[in-house]
Amino acid sequence: ELKVEQNPLFLSMQEGKNYTIYCNYSTTSDRLYWYRQDPGKSLESLFVLLSNGAVKQEGRLMASLDTKARLSTLHITAAVHDLSATYFCAVGYNTNAGKSTFGDGTTLTVKP
Amino acid sequence: EAGVVQSPRYKIIEKKQPVAFWCNPISGHNTLYWYLQNLGQGPELLIRYENEEAVDDSQLPKDRFSAERLKGVDSTLKIQPAELGDSAVYLCASSEAGGNTEAFFGQGTRLTVV
Question: What pLDDT does A77 receive?
Fold first, then answer.
């Protein structure tokens, strides 16, 4: 069974600083998704990564996928308060298109 | 374009009572998901539909949970009878067919069983 582990689970950082969130998974997959969830709200799609070496950037966030290492990273550059949220990675099943398993999320707090 | 619509947003019921949740996916999305999200955890898949067919319901507790998507559009998720441990947020999501696209989530229904 596919297991997805995110770390850290909680992250408090100062505005302007850089940091990376890690998403490790246990079995072969070449599909990975990153979502953002604000408190009391639903999940919003951020990135879709569909191949080894895929890199996508949107504003201060950049996501990458290394399928050989079974690792995805979400890098935050020069954090701002608006990035405070919980970030989830979800890993797709190669043998079951449409199915994915979510990590437990990383709750990011950016302090002024 | 309207997103995924769920109702109700909040529901409080007594244990052993039935409850139903409704979801209207994004127009044209053939794939519909029901997820359960406990506080501090990621969503867990309950059931996935491709059109009106349930293609993955292995995580659905079938003794008390049921779901349907009769015309391949709207869907309902039912719990009967509800237990205290069912208190959670129930999320509906939809995506285009094919499995390589992200899911779009509704606002969820926060269920409290007392």
Answer: 97
